[in-house]
Amino acid sequence: MDIFSRIAAGEIPSYKCGEDAEFYAFLDINPLVKGHTLCIPRREVDYIFDMEDDEIARFQVFAKRVARALKAAFPCVKVGQAVLGLEVPHAHIHLVPMQDEKDMRFGNPKLTLSSEEMQEAADRIFAEFQKL
Fold first, then answer.
1. Considering 36, 90, 92, 94, which one is annotated as catalytic?
2. Which of 52, 89, 107, 129 has the fewest other C-beta atoms within 10 Å?
């Protein structure tokens, strides 16, 4: 099992922002901005474009729901989406609340948030996710 599968299974603690039977969303531990969230499939798949068409469609719909919750929890101009990730062999989507396009620069210094701040952010997103 890779690290993201272990997170989705609850074996490794995370700051949960949303979930369903197929997908899981949690805060990035090295966020670009407050609320930076990762969406992953529970099924282990390394490359997003190796997913079947219907699965990737459901994944995007799940990410859209998380993005709507994120925007409600952290008002922003838009929620940016990026598919990166050579460091973890598990498909994932980054969702980043943006006030400016510079907020999506992955070379920017990462925020350092306390566990309390992270939990509060996750709770806000998850509460909005449950409303959708």
1. 92
2. 107
Helical residues (DSSP H) of the chain, grouped into ranges: 3-8, 53-73, 115-131
Torsion angles phi and psi, residue 124, rounded to 5: -65, -45
Starting at the edge strand found earlier in the chain, the sheet holding 78-82 runs: 16-19, 23-27, 37-41, 93-98, 78-82
Here the tokens at position 12 are 């490794």
User: Does the active-site annotation cover 94?
Assistant: no
Mean pLDDT in runs of 10 for the chain (132 residues)? 96 98 97 98 96 98 98 98 90 98 95 97 98 96
Q: What is the dihedral of CA 1, 58, 121, 72, to 10 degrees?
A: 180
pLDDT at 85: 73
